Amino acid sequence: xxxxxxxxxxxxxxxxxxxxxxxxxxxxxxxxxxxxxxxxxxxxxxxxxxxxxxxxxxxxxxxxxxxxxxxxxxxxxxxxxxxxxxxxxxxxxxxx
Length: 96
Description:
Radius of gyration: 21 Å
């Protein structure tokens, strides 16, 4: 349902001091699916119902020793499209 990942990078601030930047992305979604195989696991068929709810990004920047005290700043927030559900319910591709 909820997934998130964080990456960090450290470098110089240009004045000889160290600086760290963290970027975090988070996504909430609902996934439901069922797949069947036949023929010695060579073929698969089934269905999947996926609803993306929200995709958000945050960043923070500070000295490495003080980064945990820094508040996260939102850099993007992509909301859901309620009609997007229909695209996932109606089959649009077949994979062999």
